[in-house]
Design brief:
Elements (H helix, E strand, L loop, with lengths): L8 H4 L4 H31 L18 H5 L5 E4 L13 H8 L4 E4 L10 E5 L4 H14 L4 E7 L5 H4 L5 H9 L4 E6 L6 H12 L3 E5 L2 E4 L2 E4 L1 H9 L4 E4 L1
Helix pairs in contact: 8-9
């Protein structure tokens, strides 16, 4: 996805030949950026031996086609915006993909690097979204060295958890070969999104797996508070499904 063009105050007032010159300059900048990133892409596929299965595609800034490409992927990996978008602003790329692609989205915080996924925290509340997230993350969960299922405030939805909250999902994951344990905590009225992130840090998680909660309409977009906090404040990769 090509970046948004940066326009200086002087360029905003360009007219005639000046406007054409400005457009040419911006196009040249985009071409240099794309050349650099494509070189990185080619280096990765060469080093990992996946060249026959790889394909490079480039889309204009905020192209509506990006969601279409996501339909035909197993997983979408995207960087979230650097600015905290807690206000009700229009959705960016990460938000739109989480809400509308129907695919698991791994959201990376800005400038984050990870060498491997070894420890995974699963935020579990026995809802359709969390069930979907666990199923989508299964290939990663079964290969991880340690998985912790975190159940927060299970008493808020007792009908979904059974007599022993978290026990059934732990058994389900264990049957697939995951090295998994359950942890039950109370938020004590504190922000649940912040609690998830602090628990992920305490567990030393490389990845947080959770369902994304919210709704989207033609002219309306909104995330629930927990999802919004994690999306904009997490300092580790987050796999979200909806």
């Amino acid at each position: 996805m090509q970046p948004q063009p940066t326009v200086t105050p002087a360029e905003m007032f360009a007219r005639g030949e000046g406007m054409r010159s400005t457009i040419d300059v911006h196009q040249a900048q985009l071409e240099r950026i794309e050349t650099d990133y494509r070189a990185q892409f080619e280096d990765v596929v060469r080093r990992h031996g996946i060249r026959p299965e790889s394909e490079w595609r480039s889309l204009p800034y905020l192209s509506s086609e990006v969601g279409v490409h996501a339909y035909y992927a197993d997983t979408v990996v995207v960087a979230r915006p650097e600015t905290a978008g807690h206000t009700a602003s229009p959705p960016g790329l990460a938000e739109s993909l989480v809400m509308s692609s129907g695919r698991p989205i791994i959201v990376f915080p800005p400038r984050h690097t990870v060498s491997g996924i070894h420890r995974i925290l699963v935020a579990w509340n026995a809802t359709r979204e969390s069930i979907r997230a666990v199923a989508d993350a299964m290939p990663l969960l079964v290969k991880a060295k340690a998985v912790e299922v975190l159940v927060v405030d299970h008493q808020r939805r007792p009908e979904g958890h059974g007599q022993e909250p978290g026990a059934d999902i732990v058994r389900h994951l264990a049957r697939h070969g995951a090295q998994v344990e359950v942890r039950r905590v109370s938020s004590d009225g504190k922000d649940v999104g912040s609690l998830l992130l602090s628990q992920a840090a305490a567990f030393g998680a490389d990845l947080l797996v959770m369902g994304a909660y919210g709704h989207t309409h033609l002219r309306e977009w909104m995330f629930g508070g927990v999802t919004r906090t994690v999306l904009y404040e997490a300092d580790l990769p987050v796999l979200m499904s909806r």
